[in-house]
Amino acid sequence: MTDATERSRKAGNGEDSIYWDKSKQRYVGAVSRGYAPDGKRRRPKVYGKTKTEVRSKLRTLKKELEAGIKAPARYTIEQAVNDWLVHGLKGREDSSIAAYRSLANNHVVPDLGKAQLRDLKAEEVDEWLESRAEELSHETLKRVRAILRRSIGHAQRRGRVARNVADLAELPEGQPGRPSKSLTLEQAEKVLRAKEGTWIHAYVVLALLVGVRTEEARPLTWSHLHTAPSDGGRPYVDVWRSVRRKGDTKTRKSRRSLAMPQQAAAVMDAYRRRQQEAWAGAGVEWQEDGLVFPGEDGKERTSTNVLRNFRGLLREAGFTKPHEWTTRELRTSAVSLLSDHGIPIEVIARVVGHSGTATTERVYRKQLRPVITEGAEAMDVIFGGESSDAQGPSLEA
Predict the structure, then answer these.
(1) Are 197 and 116 contained in the same domain?
(2) Is residue 174 part of a domain?
(3) 253 has catalytic annotation
(4) Is 154 a catalytic residue?
(5) Is the same domain home to 241 and 162?
(6) Dihedral sign, CA of 209, 212, 217, 220?
(7) Are residues 246 and 364 both part of a single domain?
(8) Contact in structure between 168 and 122 (CB atoms under 8 Å)
């Protein structure tokens, strides 16, 4: 049979058809799959430069259709990633989704986005990971591979691909990550004197001397901060909430009550008085359940806002490279200072809410009562005396 005869012959019902598409300058292979509920004909298609190539693609297409694979022939990695970002992360924090999207847009889509999902091979994923390993830290490389693996897994569960080739790829060793830093005692003393009388000074004091996380300090309310307990006991703070979606701490076991060093209690007490005076001057009623560190709009501050103000404090404290520090390192500094002072690691773990001494952020223990006092007592000895903050300047906007 000649090509002309084959092109002109109409395929029978249920048969495959191969024909020349002049506009695409390609052979087209189509499989008849009946009709959709809306009455439109189902005819998945493949394309190739030769009939032999098209016949091979048709055989692969029919196997996938028999296995329940329904991906369009040109369904790409970029589409798979976007589908996962939109439909596979429901219930996640907006910040987490934004972080995944940023990693995907910067590292997955530019390199693999145009590849057709059904054609992606494990060795291609290996080569891609090897190239990324030359630039990315090992932890970032793990997250980037996870995005590809979970995106393909999401497509696989929806019948768009037969297997997940990312599961077959080996993870190479990436670059060393940025090491976490801690303030020295001399640096910490300078930090505790910078911007006295402002909200960021009070924030830093609470984070550095008590070990409160930034996500726990931002939603903190005055009702959870006890600078003068009615029973005459030590001042303490209830670390029971965070900015996470459900308002709880990182895990429920992170909920704890921590005694405050006398210096921290004095700073927070003076800061509260200034906040009350500022609100009264503005004609606003101060609320006991109001935020300790509200933004200018009265709402919770963002992590970016806190970081920007923290680095401004570091500049005033004489740091030449404040951009190299993050608020998280106030907490690591608290742990380091306590350790340098000879506090047992088991006690430090309790203060920062860890249930084990080998982890820093992963495993927590529940500690609501009694108030944990060891850390506060040590901080009083390390820094000594009470703050000069009692008559600080007016509340910073």
Answers:
(1) no
(2) no
(3) no
(4) no
(5) no
(6) negative
(7) yes
(8) yes
Domain that holds residue 106: 77-168
Q: How much is the pLDDT for 8?
A: 42
At residue 175, the 3 state secondary structure works out as strand
Of 27, 236, 271, 364, catalytic: 364
Structural domain total, the chain: 3
Considering the candidates 158, 250, 253, 273, report the single residue annotated as catalytic: 250
Judge whether 250 counts as a catalytic residue. Answer: yes
Q: Is 364 part of the annotated catalytic residue set?
A: yes
CA–CA distance, 387 with 270 (Å, rounded to integer): 10
pLDDT at 13 over 70: no
Catalytic residue among 226, 274, 331, 350: 331
CATH code, domain carrying 93? 1.10.150.130
Q: Residue 357's pLDDT band (boundaries 50, 70, 90)?
A: very low
Tell whether 259 is covered by a domain: yes
Catalytic-role residue among 107, 195, 241, 354: 354
- Residue 70 pLDDT: 55
159 and 253 fall within a common domain: no
Measure the CA–CA gap between 295 and 396, rounded to whole angstroms.
Answer: 11
Q: Is 36 within the bounds of a domain?
A: yes
Active-site choice (213, 226, 241, 255): 213
Check the CA dihedral 102-105-111-116 and report its sign. positive
Q: Which of 42-56, 144-158, 193-207, 258-272 has the lowest mean pLDDT?
A: 42-56
Domain harbouring 294, CATH code: 1.10.443.10
354 is catalytic: yes
Q: What is the DSSP string of 204-268?
A: HHHHHHH---HHHHTT-BGGGEESS-TTS---EEEE---SSTTS--SSGGG-EEEEPPHHHHHHH
Q: pTM higher than 0.90, yes or no? A: no
Q: Are residues 254 and 196 in the same domain?
A: yes
Looking at the structure, do residues 344 and 232 belong to the same domain, yes or no?
yes
